[in-house]
Amino acid sequence: MTIANQVLAVNNDLPIKTDAPVHSGKVRSVYWLTAEDSRRLIQEKGYNVASDTPLAIMVISDRISAFDCIWHGEGGMKGVPGKGAALNAISNHWFKLFKDNGLADSHILDIPHPFVWIVQKAKPVMIEAICRQYITGSMWRSYVKGEREFCGIQLPEGLEKDTKLAELLQTPSTKGILEGISGVPAQDDVNITRKNIEDNFAAFNFKSEDDIALYEKLLKEGYDVISDELAKLDQIFVDTKFEFGYVTDAKGNDKLIYMDEVGTPDSSRIWDGEQYRNGKVVENSKEGFRQLLLNHFPDSDILLNKDRMEEREALARDNALPESVLMAVSDTYTGIAEKITGNKIVISDDPKAEIIEVLRNEYDLINTI
């Protein structure tokens, strides 16, 4: 068994029962179940959702994306061993903690396998909900250029790179391309202000204007829960992205819930506390991989300049990264996951076969040949 074989790179070809096209994103693939199988599972498993709620199987992969490209390594490595299992394990841990602390539910109904979630269909809020406790990344790059207003928030003079902000800042951006919103360009991932959201709450899929304050409350509470737990591990929760959506429970109540993933190395920056106190930033997140790519290629502007996307895609397609690089990324992901959850991340020899077996035997969701 080679290392490359332990990577689940292709996750959209599983024989899962579905009558809809498989949606495959950068990391996850989504298989929408038939209405019949959705109703059957809701009844058999007792999921707290309306009986006609569409369900899906969400399968994570070990692919790694950065700068809107998928990267690969030497020896046929199409991803990072252990990455998918680590991401799911971390999200599962935080979602459970949120529920234990009375925050809100998530879209996840069941976890059949470390790579798999059974999820309910939600109506997403079209906002990337971002929290920042330190000035770094895109905020710092804008600050250095002289910008002092960020998502409608005025930043003071004299801030230094990677230092803690006086308060936790919520800096939202658009999720997808939204048309016809005054003052908001029809582009993906555009920074927006709270006033933009208030003036156009329905366009962002909020059911009421009051839910803006609820989403902000859940965002802060979720951030604080994760930050406090990471602090116990001497890890710093620098910034993160949450997503929210609406679902309906078995009693017909609409609920605002957490969606996607939370507090992972893909959606957050996490710094080592001891190293930070010694004046050094050590990333326990994908940001470390991003920085490695910036240093690896001579012309880093290709990775940062959206006008050079064709060159960037060619760079990712035509350059196999050293195996040692992807294994170092694997160590980062599995290491922080094991630290957070207290459990070892087991890298399967054949994750696809395991997924098929459990979905066949315990859920009757695999097509028969």
Could you write a compact summary of the structure shown?
By secondary structure, the protein is an alpha+beta fold.
Protein model, in words:
With 369 residues, the protein is an alpha+beta fold. The longest helix is centred in the middle third of the chain and has 23 residues. The protein is globular. The protein is 34% helix and 21% strand. The strands form 4 sheets. Strands 8, 9, 12, 13, 14, 15 and 16 form a 7-stranded antiparallel beta sheet that branches. Strands 1-2-3-7-6 form a 5-stranded antiparallel beta sheet.
What is the approximate shape? globular
The separation of the N and C termini measures 27 Å
- The tally of strands reads 16
Q: Strand share of the residues?
A: 15-25%
Question: Which labels suit this protein?
Answer:
single chain, 369 residues, alpha+beta, 7-stranded antiparallel β-sheet, 5-stranded antiparallel β-sheet, 11 helices, 16 strands
Topology (SSEs and partners):
Elements: E1 23-24, E2 28-32, H1 35-45, E3 55-60, E4 64-66, E5 69-71, H2 83-100, E6 108-113, E7 116-120, E8 123-124, E9 127-134, H3 137-144, E10 149-150, E11 153-154, E12 164-170, E13 173-174, H4 194-199, H5 210-232, E14 235-248, E15 254-259, E16 268-272, H6 273-277, H7 287-296, H8 301-304, H9 309-318, H10 323-341, H11 351-361
